[in-house]
DNA sequence: CGGTAACCGGACGCCCCCGTCCACTTGGGT
DNA sequence: ACCCAAGTGGACGGGGGCGTCCGGTTACCG
């Protein structure tokens, strides 16, 4: 559905298209979203015109390039929601998503409204709703702190994005530790102090949990 | 000491210099470090040449512009260290520094080695050492979790940097909540799960706490 | 008050990115 | 084998940032 109806493309055109997507994925992952379009074209071994013809705007390219990750993301959430223990499911979601983001810098930017008002990339809203449900259950089970709010998750994801290291390995490791800390922060604890008030974040997400 | 020996500058030159620094501070705070030099010059009402003559490289300008914040930073740490209760002191440091960073986007970038190998900006090492001591005491007091590592603090600061919102107010609010969560994560708790291993961060800080 | 060195800012050349146009090439149907 | 529309990449003009040079201006000292 993010895919344009696969109009009959000539075989060579299809090839080029694929190579462009590969190049884009590689570069976005490594360097973030603001690689020059030129660079992507060069890496794919095509001219700029070809790139622009196939993907008129960078947003199109980004959306297409990250379709996989978005599905992975949704799969993770689904998996977490399926877990019998909602708290364990939520932890799983946090860990996995943080790792996913750690491995792919561009995806993080794309995911976190780097493109303001992106056309609800592959059911972001739906996914958020699912997580909200999961959180609800985790709260009812008494494992998730009661003053948790869905925006806290966004906050954590944004924060995770702020972590930068030299190598991808270090990045993943740091992200893992961060996720651990985040989970610790969210877990209900008899003597925990109340949190400062939640701030409305820029995302279109509803704030209730 | 980051200051060039204040060679006798002609009065007008001094004026311009000051106006440049003001402009730089304002722009860096609002938009981060990658404002064009041109923009700063324009805002200061001077030509590009003047700017470049006074601050040959952007790094020079940044260092000079953030001298205040760096002192504030150090003051915060000192204040925290002076607190009789080391845990309370540490919390204070986290809260205040997160807020400081939330209010000044450029400073965060400058602070977190945005310029790799910046010449130990105003005793960064010293400050880190002080915090390490504070953490040590907080641990001994049994309030800080025993598997805390100084790099965790860097991690939290980096993470805090990842948080972006539309307005400064929202930013501060979000940062406050984040700091609250971070503190929660760091507090010793009888039944908390062990954390994933700490990753060595890019900073030159020693990893032990 | 006058001279000089310090100082100024506009203008220049360089490089990189963007998005588009167009003359050539090539896939694939007949 | 032929043809032509779909497809291609090089080239172009525009815009913006960078760092530097230079002819005019101005503070300060005697």
Fold topology:
Two copies of one chain form a homodimer.
Chain A: H1 11-31, H2 37-44, H3 48-54, H4 58-65, H5 67-82, H6 86-103, H7 105-111, H8 124-140, H9 150-162, H10 168-186
Chain B binds a DNA duplex (30 and 30 nucleotides) through residues 9-13, 16, 36-39, 41, 46-50, 52-53, 56.
Binned strand content of chain A: under 5%
Shape estimate of chain A: elongated
> How many domains is the backbone of chain A divided into?
2
The greatest inter-chain interface is formed by: A-B, 38 and 38 residues
Number of DSSP strands of chain A? 0
CATH topology of the largest domain in chain A: Tetracycline Repressor, domain 2
| Biggest sheet architecture of chain A | none
User: Low-confidence parts of chain A lasting 5 or more residues at pLDDT below 50?
Assistant: 1-5, 204-209
Q: What Rg of chain A do the Cα atoms give?
A: 19 Å
What fraction, in percent, of the residue positions of chain A are helical? 55-70%
Kindly state the mean pLDDT of chain A as a whole number? Answer: 88
The number of helical runs of chain A is 10
The CATH class assignment of the largest domain in chain A is: Mainly Alpha
CATH architecture of the largest domain in chain A: Orthogonal Bundle
């Amino acid at each position: 559905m993010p895919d344009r109806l696969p109009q009959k493309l000539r075989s060579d055109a299809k090839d080029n298209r694929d190579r462009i997507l590969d190049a884009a994925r590689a570069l976005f992952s490594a360097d973030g979203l603001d690689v020059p379009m030129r660079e992507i074209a060069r890496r794919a071994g095509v001219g700029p015109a070809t790139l622009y013809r196939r993907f008129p705007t960078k947003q199109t390219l980004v959306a297409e390039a990250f379709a996989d990750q978005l599905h992975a993301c949704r799969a993770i959430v689904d998996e977490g929601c399926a877990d019998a223990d909602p708290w364990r499911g939520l932890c799983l979601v946090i860990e996995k998503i943080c790792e996913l983001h750690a491995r792919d810098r561009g995806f993080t930017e794309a995911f976190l409204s780097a493109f303001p008002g992106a056309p609800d990339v592959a059911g972001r809203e739906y996914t958020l709703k699912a997580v909200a449900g999961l959180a609800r259950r985790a709260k009812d089970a008494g494992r998730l702190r009661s003053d948790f709010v869905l925006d806290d998750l966004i906050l954590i994801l944004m924060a995770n994005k702020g972590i930068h290291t030299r190598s991808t390995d270090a990045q993943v490791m740091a992200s893992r530790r961060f996720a651990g800390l985040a989970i610790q922060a969210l877990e209900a604890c008899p003597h925990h102090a109340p949190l400062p008030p939640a701030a409305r974040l820029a995302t279109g997400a509803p704030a209730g949990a």
